[in-house]
Specification:
The chain is α/β, with parallel strands linked by helices. The protein has a single domain, classed as Rossmann fold (3-Layer(aba) Sandwich), CATH 3.40.50. It contains five helices and five strands; from the N terminus they run ααβαβαβαββ. A three-stranded parallel beta sheet has the order 3-4-5, covered by helices on one side. Strands 1-2 form a two-stranded parallel sheet. Strand 3, helix 5 and strand 4 form a beta-alpha-beta unit. Helix 4 crosses helix 5. It is globular and about 40 Å long.
């Protein structure tokens, strides 16, 4: 918001407008190829999957469709407290530590939220953000392909390749 010069009080108005536009177009939004199978495999391997999004729960659930069964928590909607507070809420809900958690996203703001929450961040190359936009972020994990997300199922204590 600071980068865009958007005052905090305007966030609910912008979020409502974004959510309304998304709802009108959500039937045209498809999951990236391979996401459904990857979510199913991560869930099968016992990875706790959650979605933290500024979009509405209704929109997120619609786009995920049957894949919602693999998602254990949906923390959705715009908040003046930001995504970091929502990330912390999800960690508390499932009793996981910061060291056990990674927030995967396609925008530099996702990386900033992860840093604020004190957790690892994984940037994806196939999302809606430009890969070069992540250059200003601190350390982060890079996922060049959807298949690489399956590395998140590594047993605890084993380093992820990449």
């Amino acid at each position: 918001m600071a980068r865009l010069g958007l005052p905090r009080w305007k966030l609910p108005l912008v979020a409502r407008s974004f959510t309304r536009l998304m709802k009108q177009q959500r039937s045209a939004i498809q999951l990236f190829d391979g996401i459904a199978a990857t979510l199913a495999e991560l869930d099968r391997q016992g990875v706790i999957l959650a979605v933290v999004s500024s979009n509405s729960r209704e929109n997120v659930a619609h786009v995920l469709g049957p894949c919602c069964r693999h998602i254990r928590a949906l923390e959705c909607g715009a908040s003046i407290f930001g995504k970091a507070s929502r990330l912390n809420r999800v960690m508390r809900q499932f009793g996981v530590t910061r060291e056990e958690t990674i927030y995967v996203g396609d925008q530099p703001m996702d990386g900033e939220a992860a840093a604020s929450a004190g957790i690892a961040f994984g940037a994806v190359a196939w999302g809606y953000g430009a890969p070069e936009a992540f250059s200003g972020l601190g350390q982060h994990r890079w996922f060049a392909s959807i298949g690489q997300l399956q590395q998140l199922a590594q047993p605890r204590g084993e380093p992820m390749a990449g």
